Protein backbone atom coordinates (compact mmCIF):
# COMPACT_ATOMS: atom_id res chain seq x y z
CA UNK A 1 0.00 0.00 0.00
CA UNK A 2 2.80 2.35 0.99
CA UNK A 3 4.59 1.58 -2.29
CA UNK A 4 1.48 2.33 -4.35
CA UNK A 5 0.97 5.64 -2.55
CA UNK A 6 4.61 6.57 -3.19
CA UNK A 7 4.26 5.62 -6.87
CA UNK A 8 1.18 7.86 -7.17
CA UNK A 9 3.10 10.70 -5.52
CA UNK A 10 5.98 10.17 -7.89
CA UNK A 11 3.64 10.38 -10.89
CA UNK A 12 2.14 13.55 -9.43
CA UNK A 13 5.65 14.95 -9.17
CA UNK A 14 6.39 14.14 -12.80
CA UNK A 15 3.07 15.75 -13.82
CA UNK A 16 3.90 18.85 -11.79
CA UNK A 17 7.32 19.08 -13.46
CA UNK A 18 5.90 18.71 -16.97
CA UNK A 19 3.16 21.29 -16.27
CA UNK A 20 5.65 23.74 -14.83
CA UNK A 21 8.02 23.29 -17.77
CA UNK A 22 5.19 23.68 -20.26
CA UNK A 23 3.90 26.85 -18.57
CA UNK A 24 7.23 28.52 -17.97
CA UNK A 25 9.15 27.49 -21.05
CA UNK A 26 6.97 26.31 -23.94
CA UNK A 27 3.83 28.46 -23.55
CA UNK A 28 5.76 31.61 -22.68
CA UNK A 29 8.22 31.21 -25.55
CA UNK A 30 5.38 30.75 -28.03
CA UNK A 31 3.47 33.79 -26.73
CA UNK A 32 6.66 35.94 -26.72
CA UNK A 33 7.36 35.02 -30.34
CA UNK A 34 3.72 35.72 -31.25
CA UNK A 35 3.84 39.10 -29.50
CA UNK A 36 7.05 40.02 -31.34
CA UNK A 37 5.49 38.98 -34.66
CA UNK A 38 2.31 41.00 -34.05
CA UNK A 39 4.12 44.09 -32.72
CA UNK A 40 3.63 47.33 -34.57
CA UNK A 41 6.21 50.11 -34.56
CA UNK A 42 5.75 52.33 -31.49
CA UNK A 43 4.19 55.71 -32.15
CA UNK A 44 7.04 58.26 -31.96
CA UNK A 45 4.70 60.93 -30.53
CA UNK A 46 3.98 59.06 -27.29
CA UNK A 47 4.57 61.19 -24.21
CA UNK A 48 5.24 60.02 -20.68
CA UNK A 49 1.65 60.78 -19.72
CA UNK A 50 0.42 58.25 -22.32
CA UNK A 51 2.49 55.44 -20.86
CA UNK A 52 1.17 52.88 -18.39
CA UNK A 53 3.75 52.32 -15.66
CA UNK A 54 4.00 48.93 -14.01
CA UNK A 55 6.24 49.31 -10.98
CA UNK A 56 7.83 46.27 -9.33
CA UNK A 57 9.24 46.72 -5.84
CA UNK A 58 12.02 44.19 -5.23
CA UNK A 59 13.86 42.05 -7.78
CA UNK A 60 14.49 38.62 -6.32
CA UNK A 61 12.73 35.36 -7.11
CA UNK A 62 9.30 36.96 -7.25
CA UNK A 63 9.85 40.47 -8.62
CA UNK A 64 12.63 39.67 -11.10
CA UNK A 65 10.59 36.83 -12.54
CA UNK A 66 7.43 38.99 -12.70
CA UNK A 67 9.43 41.60 -14.66
CA UNK A 68 10.52 38.93 -17.10
CA UNK A 69 6.97 37.66 -17.66
CA UNK A 70 5.71 41.19 -18.21
CA UNK A 71 8.56 41.98 -20.60
CA UNK A 72 7.48 39.11 -22.82
CA UNK A 73 3.73 39.56 -22.49
CA UNK A 74 2.89 43.27 -22.66
CA UNK A 75 1.72 44.84 -25.91
CA UNK A 76 4.73 46.23 -27.81
CA UNK A 77 3.21 49.52 -28.89
CA UNK A 78 5.35 51.77 -26.72
CA UNK A 79 2.51 52.45 -24.30
CA UNK A 80 3.79 50.28 -21.44
CA UNK A 81 6.80 50.47 -19.20
CA UNK A 82 8.06 48.16 -16.46
CA UNK A 83 10.01 49.95 -13.73
CA UNK A 84 11.91 47.75 -11.28
CA UNK A 85 13.04 49.31 -7.99
CA UNK A 86 15.75 47.29 -6.22
CA UNK A 87 18.41 48.50 -3.77
CA UNK A 88 20.75 45.51 -4.11
CA UNK A 89 23.60 45.78 -6.58
CA UNK A 90 23.24 42.05 -7.37
CA UNK A 91 20.68 39.28 -7.08
CA UNK A 92 21.30 37.75 -3.65
CA UNK A 93 21.21 33.98 -3.99
CA UNK A 94 20.06 33.16 -0.46
CA UNK A 95 20.26 29.38 -0.81
CA UNK A 96 24.04 29.37 -0.57
CA UNK A 97 24.52 31.88 2.26
CA UNK A 98 24.68 29.27 5.08
CA UNK A 99 27.28 27.20 3.16
CA UNK A 100 29.41 30.22 2.25
CA UNK A 101 29.36 31.41 5.86
CA UNK A 102 31.48 28.33 6.59
CA UNK A 103 33.36 27.29 3.44
CA UNK A 104 35.92 29.72 2.05
CA UNK A 105 36.57 30.75 -1.52
CA UNK A 106 33.09 30.73 -3.05
CA UNK A 107 31.50 33.81 -1.50
CA UNK A 108 31.46 35.83 -4.75
CA UNK A 109 29.18 33.20 -6.27
CA UNK A 110 26.30 34.26 -4.00
CA UNK A 111 25.93 37.58 -5.82
CA UNK A 112 24.59 37.15 -9.33
CA UNK A 113 24.68 40.19 -11.60
CA UNK A 114 21.29 41.35 -12.84
CA UNK A 115 21.35 41.07 -16.59
CA UNK A 116 19.51 42.26 -19.70
CA UNK A 117 19.85 38.67 -20.92
CA UNK A 118 17.16 37.68 -18.44
CA UNK A 119 14.68 39.81 -20.41
CA UNK A 120 16.00 38.93 -23.82
CA UNK A 121 12.72 37.46 -25.07
CA UNK A 122 11.10 40.87 -24.66
CA UNK A 123 11.72 44.05 -26.61
CA UNK A 124 14.41 46.50 -25.59
CA UNK A 125 13.37 49.63 -23.69
CA UNK A 126 10.52 47.98 -21.84
CA UNK A 127 12.32 47.46 -18.53
CA UNK A 128 13.71 50.43 -16.59
CA UNK A 129 15.88 49.77 -13.57
CA UNK A 130 16.07 52.05 -10.54
CA UNK A 131 18.64 51.23 -7.87
CA UNK A 132 16.85 52.61 -4.85
CA UNK A 133 14.59 51.51 -2.03
CA UNK A 134 10.87 52.17 -1.77
CA UNK A 135 10.16 53.84 1.55
CA UNK A 136 6.40 53.91 1.24
CA UNK A 137 3.60 53.13 -1.17
CA UNK A 138 1.00 55.78 -1.80
CA UNK A 139 -2.24 55.45 -3.72
CA UNK A 140 -0.75 56.28 -7.14
CA UNK A 141 3.00 56.46 -6.57
CA UNK A 142 5.87 54.94 -4.63
CA UNK A 143 8.18 57.18 -2.63
CA UNK A 144 11.87 56.28 -2.82
CA UNK A 145 14.64 56.68 -0.26
CA UNK A 146 16.19 59.27 -2.60
CA UNK A 147 13.03 61.36 -2.22
CA UNK A 148 11.90 60.72 -5.80
CA UNK A 149 8.41 59.47 -6.50
CA UNK A 150 7.45 57.10 -9.28
CA UNK A 151 3.85 57.01 -10.37
CA UNK A 152 2.35 53.62 -10.99
CA UNK A 153 -0.70 52.36 -12.79
CA UNK A 154 -0.03 48.83 -11.57
CA UNK A 155 2.21 47.81 -8.72
CA UNK A 156 3.74 44.52 -7.62
CA UNK A 157 5.10 44.47 -4.08
CA UNK A 158 7.76 41.72 -4.00
CA UNK A 159 9.85 42.84 -1.04
CA UNK A 160 10.29 39.35 0.41
CA UNK A 161 11.53 38.93 3.94
CA UNK A 162 14.23 40.40 6.09
CA UNK A 163 16.25 39.62 9.21
CA UNK A 164 17.72 42.27 11.48
CA UNK A 165 21.01 40.39 11.92
CA UNK A 166 21.79 39.67 8.25
CA UNK A 167 23.92 36.55 7.76
CA UNK A 168 23.48 33.61 7.58
CA UNK A 169 19.95 34.29 6.25
CA UNK A 170 20.47 37.57 4.37
CA UNK A 171 23.52 39.49 3.19
CA UNK A 172 22.97 42.35 5.64
CA UNK A 173 23.70 45.11 3.10
CA UNK A 174 23.02 46.19 -0.45
CA UNK A 175 26.27 45.87 -2.37
CA UNK A 176 28.19 42.82 -3.51
CA UNK A 177 31.55 43.87 -2.05
CA UNK A 178 30.09 44.41 1.43
CA UNK A 179 28.28 41.06 1.22
CA UNK A 180 31.50 39.26 0.28
CA UNK A 181 33.35 40.95 3.15
CA UNK A 182 30.67 39.99 5.66
CA UNK A 183 30.72 36.37 4.46
CA UNK A 184 34.52 36.28 4.86
CA UNK A 185 34.24 37.82 8.33
CA UNK A 186 31.74 35.12 9.31
CA UNK A 187 34.04 32.38 7.94
CA UNK A 188 36.88 33.81 10.05
CA UNK A 189 34.71 33.99 13.19
CA UNK A 190 33.75 30.35 12.79
CA UNK A 191 37.32 29.27 11.98
CA UNK A 192 38.71 31.04 15.06
CA UNK A 193 36.07 29.78 17.50
CA UNK A 194 35.97 26.63 19.59
CA UNK A 195 32.38 26.59 20.83
CA UNK A 196 29.77 27.57 18.24
CA UNK A 197 26.16 28.12 19.25
CA UNK A 198 23.57 28.40 16.49
CA UNK A 199 20.04 29.61 17.31
CA UNK A 200 17.14 28.46 15.13
CA UNK A 201 16.34 24.96 13.92
CA UNK A 202 14.89 25.95 10.54
CA UNK A 203 16.76 25.43 7.27
CA UNK A 204 19.39 28.16 7.75
CA UNK A 205 20.27 27.04 11.29
CA UNK A 206 20.41 23.36 10.41
CA UNK A 207 22.56 23.99 7.33
CA UNK A 208 25.08 26.27 8.98
CA UNK A 209 25.39 24.01 12.07
CA UNK A 210 25.91 20.81 10.04
CA UNK A 211 28.34 22.48 7.63
CA UNK A 212 30.37 23.98 10.49
CA UNK A 213 30.64 20.67 12.33
CA UNK A 214 31.47 18.76 9.15
CA UNK A 215 34.15 21.30 8.16
CA UNK A 216 35.59 21.62 11.69
CA UNK A 217 34.89 18.31 13.49
CA UNK A 218 37.02 19.31 16.49
CA UNK A 219 34.90 22.31 17.39
CA UNK A 220 31.79 21.95 19.53
CA UNK A 221 28.64 22.98 17.69
CA UNK A 222 25.34 23.37 19.54
CA UNK A 223 22.03 24.03 17.81
CA UNK A 224 19.30 25.55 19.99
CA UNK A 225 15.69 25.50 18.82
CA UNK A 226 12.58 26.71 20.63
CA UNK A 227 10.33 23.90 19.31
CA UNK A 228 10.33 20.19 20.05
CA UNK A 229 11.83 19.12 16.69
CA UNK A 230 14.26 20.61 14.20
CA UNK A 231 12.60 21.61 10.88
CA UNK A 232 9.28 21.43 12.74
CA UNK A 233 7.30 22.94 9.83
CA UNK A 234 8.32 20.13 7.49
CA UNK A 235 7.46 16.44 7.06
CA UNK A 236 8.23 13.86 9.73
CA UNK A 237 10.69 12.08 7.41
CA UNK A 238 12.71 15.24 6.90
CA UNK A 239 12.69 15.90 10.64
CA UNK A 240 13.97 12.37 11.28
CA UNK A 241 16.66 12.71 8.59
CA UNK A 242 17.76 16.00 10.13
CA UNK A 243 17.97 14.48 13.62
CA UNK A 244 20.05 11.56 12.22
CA UNK A 245 22.48 14.00 10.60
CA UNK A 246 22.99 15.79 13.93
CA UNK A 247 23.86 12.48 15.58
CA UNK A 248 26.13 11.40 12.72
CA UNK A 249 28.10 14.65 12.79
CA UNK A 250 28.05 15.18 16.56
CA UNK A 251 26.10 18.44 16.68
CA UNK A 252 24.54 18.88 20.11
CA UNK A 253 20.85 19.75 19.83
CA UNK A 254 18.93 21.58 22.57
CA UNK A 255 15.18 21.74 21.97
CA UNK A 256 12.46 23.77 23.72
CA UNK A 257 14.86 26.60 24.60
CA UNK A 258 15.63 30.05 23.27
CA UNK A 259 18.96 31.85 23.31
CA UNK A 260 19.32 35.29 24.87
CA UNK A 261 21.67 36.91 22.31
CA UNK A 262 22.47 39.80 24.66
CA UNK A 263 23.91 37.40 27.23
CA UNK A 264 26.89 36.36 25.08
CA UNK A 265 30.05 37.37 26.96
CA UNK A 266 32.66 35.75 24.71
CA UNK A 267 32.79 32.55 26.80
CA UNK A 268 29.18 31.63 27.63
CA UNK A 269 25.66 32.33 26.45
CA UNK A 270 22.43 31.95 28.45
CA UNK A 271 19.31 30.05 27.42
CA UNK A 272 15.70 30.89 28.34
CA UNK A 273 15.77 28.34 31.18
CA UNK A 274 18.74 30.14 32.71
CA UNK A 275 21.15 27.41 31.64
CA UNK A 276 24.56 28.71 30.53
CA UNK A 277 26.44 26.99 27.72
CA UNK A 278 29.95 27.50 26.38
CA UNK A 279 29.99 29.89 23.44
CA UNK A 280 32.69 31.95 21.78
CA UNK A 281 30.80 32.34 18.51
CA UNK A 282 27.06 32.94 18.38
CA UNK A 283 25.21 32.63 15.07
CA UNK A 284 21.61 33.80 15.01
CA UNK A 285 19.34 32.14 12.45
CA UNK A 286 16.05 33.39 13.91
CA UNK A 287 13.91 36.46 13.43
CA UNK A 288 13.08 36.40 9.73
CA UNK A 289 10.05 38.65 9.02
CA UNK A 290 8.08 39.72 5.95
CA UNK A 291 9.37 43.06 4.61
CA UNK A 292 5.92 44.62 4.55
CA UNK A 293 6.64 48.07 6.03
CA UNK A 294 6.14 49.78 2.66
CA UNK A 295 2.38 49.28 2.88
CA UNK A 296 2.00 50.20 6.57
CA UNK A 297 0.78 53.73 5.83
CA UNK A 298 -1.54 53.06 2.87
CA UNK A 299 -3.21 49.82 3.95
CA UNK A 300 -2.29 48.90 7.54
CA UNK A 301 -5.46 46.81 7.83
CA UNK A 302 -4.02 44.32 5.30
CA UNK A 303 -1.12 43.43 7.58
CA UNK A 304 -1.52 40.10 9.35
CA UNK A 305 -0.24 39.30 12.81
CA UNK A 306 2.82 37.68 11.26
CA UNK A 307 3.53 40.83 9.23
CA UNK A 308 2.48 39.40 5.84
CA UNK A 309 0.31 41.45 3.48
CA UNK A 310 -3.10 39.85 3.13
CA UNK A 311 -4.02 39.11 -0.48
CA UNK A 312 -6.96 37.82 -2.52
CA UNK A 313 -6.47 34.56 -4.43
CA UNK A 314 -5.59 36.70 -7.49
CA UNK A 315 -2.72 38.14 -5.38
CA UNK A 316 -4.34 41.58 -5.47
CA UNK A 317 -3.96 43.20 -2.07
CA UNK A 318 -6.98 42.49 0.12
CA UNK A 319 -8.38 46.00 -0.18
CA UNK A 320 -11.05 46.68 -2.80
CA UNK A 321 -9.92 50.29 -3.18
CA UNK A 322 -6.50 49.13 -4.48
CA UNK A 323 -7.29 46.66 -7.29
CA UNK A 324 -4.11 47.59 -9.16
CA UNK A 325 -1.78 46.63 -6.28
CA UNK A 326 -0.45 43.06 -6.26
CA UNK A 327 1.69 41.29 -3.67
CA UNK A 328 3.86 38.24 -4.43
CA UNK A 329 6.52 36.07 -2.81
CA UNK A 330 7.57 35.79 0.83
CA UNK A 331 5.83 39.04 1.80
CA UNK A 332 2.42 37.85 0.60
CA UNK A 333 0.01 36.30 3.09
CA UNK A 334 -1.06 33.71 0.55
CA UNK A 335 -1.20 30.73 2.91
CA UNK A 336 1.97 29.05 1.69
CA UNK A 337 2.98 26.56 4.39
CA UNK A 338 6.69 26.90 3.78
CA UNK A 339 7.43 29.87 1.52
CA UNK A 340 10.26 29.21 -0.91
CA UNK A 341 11.72 30.45 -4.17
CA UNK A 342 9.52 28.28 -6.37
CA UNK A 343 6.37 29.65 -4.73
CA UNK A 344 7.75 33.21 -4.93
CA UNK A 345 8.44 32.86 -8.65
CA UNK A 346 5.04 31.28 -9.34
CA UNK A 347 3.31 34.10 -7.48
CA UNK A 348 5.34 36.67 -9.45
CA UNK A 349 4.14 34.95 -12.61
CA UNK A 350 0.48 35.01 -11.49
CA UNK A 351 0.61 38.70 -10.53
CA UNK A 352 2.21 39.55 -13.88
CA UNK A 353 -0.36 37.52 -15.83
CA UNK A 354 -3.22 39.20 -13.98
CA UNK A 355 -1.83 42.64 -14.78
CA UNK A 356 -1.65 41.71 -18.47
CA UNK A 357 -5.28 40.53 -18.29
CA UNK A 358 -6.36 43.80 -16.62
CA UNK A 359 -4.52 45.82 -19.25
CA UNK A 360 -6.41 43.89 -21.93
CA UNK A 361 -9.68 44.87 -20.24
CA UNK A 362 -10.29 41.46 -18.66
CA UNK A 363 -10.81 40.61 -15.02
CA UNK A 364 -7.70 39.16 -13.34
CA UNK A 365 -8.53 35.48 -13.18
CA UNK A 366 -5.31 33.62 -12.37
CA UNK A 367 -5.26 32.57 -8.75
CA UNK A 368 -2.62 31.19 -6.42
CA UNK A 369 -3.37 27.92 -4.70
CA UNK A 370 -0.60 25.84 -3.21
CA UNK A 371 0.13 22.91 -5.51
CA UNK A 372 1.70 19.62 -4.81
CA UNK A 373 5.33 20.08 -5.78
CA UNK A 374 5.47 23.67 -4.48
CA UNK A 375 6.56 22.35 -1.14
CA UNK A 376 10.04 21.28 -2.17
CA UNK A 377 13.19 21.80 -0.19
CA UNK A 378 16.72 20.53 -0.63
CA UNK A 379 18.23 20.61 2.82
CA UNK A 380 21.97 20.17 3.12
CA UNK A 381 23.07 18.09 6.09
CA UNK A 382 26.83 18.51 6.03
CA UNK A 383 29.19 19.19 3.18
CA UNK A 384 28.50 16.10 1.10
CA UNK A 385 24.89 15.15 1.59
CA UNK A 386 21.37 16.48 1.54
CA UNK A 387 17.73 15.42 1.50
CA UNK A 388 15.23 16.71 -1.04
CA UNK A 389 11.70 16.66 0.28
CA UNK A 390 8.38 16.89 -1.57
CA UNK A 391 5.38 17.07 0.70
CA UNK A 392 1.71 17.97 0.43
CA UNK A 393 1.01 18.21 4.15
CA UNK A 394 0.21 14.50 4.43
CA UNK A 395 2.35 12.44 2.06
CA UNK A 396 6.06 12.94 1.59
CA UNK A 397 8.66 11.90 -0.96
CA UNK A 398 12.25 12.03 0.24
CA UNK A 399 15.32 11.81 -1.95
CA UNK A 400 18.58 11.51 0.01
CA UNK A 401 21.46 12.82 -2.13
CA UNK A 402 25.25 12.57 -2.12
CA UNK A 403 26.61 15.99 -3.07
CA UNK A 404 30.02 16.66 -4.58
CA UNK A 405 29.92 20.40 -5.34
CA UNK A 406 30.81 22.58 -2.35
CA UNK A 407 29.26 25.54 -4.20
CA UNK A 408 25.93 23.70 -4.32
CA UNK A 409 25.75 23.85 -8.11
CA UNK A 410 24.93 27.54 -7.97
CA UNK A 411 26.31 27.96 -11.49
CA UNK A 412 22.87 26.70 -12.59
CA UNK A 413 21.23 29.68 -10.87
CA UNK A 414 23.58 32.07 -12.68
CA UNK A 415 22.70 30.57 -16.03
CA UNK A 416 18.96 30.56 -15.26
CA UNK A 417 19.20 34.26 -14.43
CA UNK A 418 20.92 35.11 -17.70
CA UNK A 419 24.41 35.52 -16.19
CA UNK A 420 27.66 33.74 -17.10
CA UNK A 421 29.07 31.77 -14.14
CA UNK A 422 30.93 33.38 -12.31
CA UNK A 423 31.62 36.52 -14.29
CA UNK A 424 30.66 39.68 -12.49
CA UNK A 425 29.38 42.26 -14.95
CA UNK A 426 28.84 44.91 -12.27
CA UNK A 427 25.79 46.87 -11.31
CA UNK A 428 22.93 46.60 -13.77
CA UNK A 429 21.51 49.83 -15.07
CA UNK A 430 18.76 48.42 -17.27
CA UNK A 431 17.91 48.83 -20.89
CA UNK A 432 16.11 52.10 -20.50
CA UNK A 433 16.48 54.96 -18.10
CA UNK A 434 13.45 55.90 -16.07
CA UNK A 435 12.13 59.01 -17.79
CA UNK A 436 12.24 61.97 -15.47
CA UNK A 437 8.52 62.58 -15.89
CA UNK A 438 7.83 59.26 -14.18
CA UNK A 439 9.91 60.40 -11.27
CA UNK A 440 7.71 63.43 -10.70
CA UNK A 441 4.76 63.61 -8.42
CA UNK A 442 1.97 61.35 -9.66
CA UNK A 443 -0.48 64.26 -9.72
CA UNK A 444 1.05 65.48 -13.01
CA UNK A 445 0.49 62.16 -14.75
CA UNK A 446 -2.77 60.52 -13.80
CA UNK A 447 -3.09 56.77 -13.59
CA UNK A 448 -4.40 54.85 -16.59
CA UNK A 449 -5.48 51.79 -14.70
CA UNK A 450 -7.44 49.37 -16.86
CA UNK A 451 -10.29 47.14 -15.90
CA UNK A 452 -8.80 45.65 -12.78
C1 LIG B 1 19.34 30.99 4.09
C2 LIG B 1 18.18 30.69 3.19
C3 LIG B 1 18.22 29.58 2.36
C4 LIG B 1 17.15 29.31 1.50
N1 LIG B 1 17.20 28.19 0.72
C5 LIG B 1 16.20 27.95 -0.16
C6 LIG B 1 16.25 26.83 -1.02
O1 LIG B 1 17.18 26.04 -0.98
N2 LIG B 1 15.23 26.65 -1.89
C7 LIG B 1 14.17 27.52 -1.96
O2 LIG B 1 13.30 27.33 -2.81
N3 LIG B 1 14.08 28.58 -1.13
C8 LIG B 1 15.06 28.82 -0.24
N4 LIG B 1 14.99 29.88 0.62
C9 LIG B 1 13.79 30.74 0.58
C10 LIG B 1 13.89 31.75 -0.52
O3 LIG B 1 15.12 32.42 -0.46
C11 LIG B 1 12.75 32.75 -0.43
O4 LIG B 1 11.51 32.07 -0.37
C12 LIG B 1 12.77 33.65 -1.65
O5 LIG B 1 13.99 34.36 -1.68
C13 LIG B 1 11.62 34.62 -1.64
O6 LIG B 1 11.75 35.43 -2.77
P1 LIG B 1 11.09 36.87 -2.81
O7 LIG B 1 11.32 37.39 -4.19
O8 LIG B 1 9.70 36.82 -2.31
O9 LIG B 1 11.86 37.75 -1.74
P2 LIG B 1 13.37 37.97 -1.32
O10 LIG B 1 14.26 36.90 -1.85
O11 LIG B 1 13.37 38.21 0.13
O12 LIG B 1 13.77 39.30 -2.08
C14 LIG B 1 13.11 40.51 -1.88
C15 LIG B 1 13.79 41.56 -2.75
O13 LIG B 1 13.12 42.80 -2.53
C16 LIG B 1 14.07 43.79 -2.29
N5 LIG B 1 13.43 44.78 -1.40
C17 LIG B 1 13.08 44.62 -0.10
N6 LIG B 1 12.52 45.73 0.37
C18 LIG B 1 12.52 46.62 -0.65
C19 LIG B 1 12.07 47.97 -0.77
N7 LIG B 1 11.51 48.61 0.25
N8 LIG B 1 12.23 48.60 -1.95
C20 LIG B 1 12.79 47.95 -3.02
N9 LIG B 1 13.23 46.68 -2.95
C21 LIG B 1 13.09 46.02 -1.78
C22 LIG B 1 15.24 43.09 -1.64
O14 LIG B 1 16.44 43.84 -1.80
C23 LIG B 1 15.25 41.77 -2.38
O15 LIG B 1 16.03 41.80 -3.54
C24 LIG B 1 16.04 30.17 1.49
C25 LIG B 1 16.01 31.31 2.30
C26 LIG B 1 17.07 31.56 3.14
C27 LIG B 1 17.02 32.78 4.01
TrEMBL record:
GO MF: electron-transferring-flavoprotein dehydrogenase activity; flavin adenine dinucleotide binding
Gene Ontology cellular-component annotations: cytoplasm
Taxonomic superkingdom: Eukaryota
Protein name (record): Apoptosis-inducing factor 2
Limits of the FAD/NAD(P)-binding domain: 53-345
Amino acid sequence: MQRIRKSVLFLKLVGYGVRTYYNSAVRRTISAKLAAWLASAPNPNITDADITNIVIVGAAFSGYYAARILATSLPRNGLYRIIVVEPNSHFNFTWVFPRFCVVEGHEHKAFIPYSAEFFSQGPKDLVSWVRDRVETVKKECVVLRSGNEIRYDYLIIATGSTVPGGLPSRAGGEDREGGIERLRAMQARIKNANHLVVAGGGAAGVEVATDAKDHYPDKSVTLVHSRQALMHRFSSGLQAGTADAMTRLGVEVILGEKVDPGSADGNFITLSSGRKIKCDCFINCTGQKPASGVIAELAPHTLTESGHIRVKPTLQIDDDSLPNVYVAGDVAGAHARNPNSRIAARQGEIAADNIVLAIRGKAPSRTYKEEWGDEVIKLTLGLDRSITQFWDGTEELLFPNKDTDLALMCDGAWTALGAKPFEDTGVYTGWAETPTASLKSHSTTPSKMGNA
